[in-house]
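Late entry, evening session. Most of the bench is empty. Finally got around to the prediction I had been postponing all week. Sequence below, unchanged from the version circulated by S.P.
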Amino acid sequence: MNWNDVVRFAREGNLQPPRRVERSDDEWRALLPEDRFYVTRLKGTERPHSSEMCSLFTPGRYACGCCGTELFDSSSKFESGTGWPSFTQPVDDAVIAHHADTSHGMTRIETTCNVCDAHLGHVFPDGPEPSGLRFCMNALALDKISSDEA
């Protein structure tokens, strides 16, 4: 995946997800801690550098904090200096959805879990090669799965 793919998905539609998990806001609110609900269901953003996940580089996978879908592998994680966990690629293009976001007076591309629609963060074209992508994720939207479980 590269920036052209991301823009195309945001404009023309995303890939079909591997499965769907759908719940009402009340069901999500009952299942999730308040801070995770705010970030994932209300499109909030956690404070930069507020999570130890930024400096966590042990092997394993990162899953959606709402539905458990595996989203990123630690091999694609890098230190971006932004204060949020950053990745160059998802484990599968179909697990992340891309949406144009013109909030806050800027144009960005929001990323959501393609399985449950959880807000994850945004993707930018300023990451390292080979993809050139920086998936800038809220740590509250992710669960780290140990390498033994991946």
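Two things to note before I forget:
The domain at 3-146 is CATH 2.170.150.20 (Metal Binding Protein, Guanine Nucleotide Exchange Factor; Chain A).
The chain has one domain: 3-146.
Will write this up properly tomorrow.
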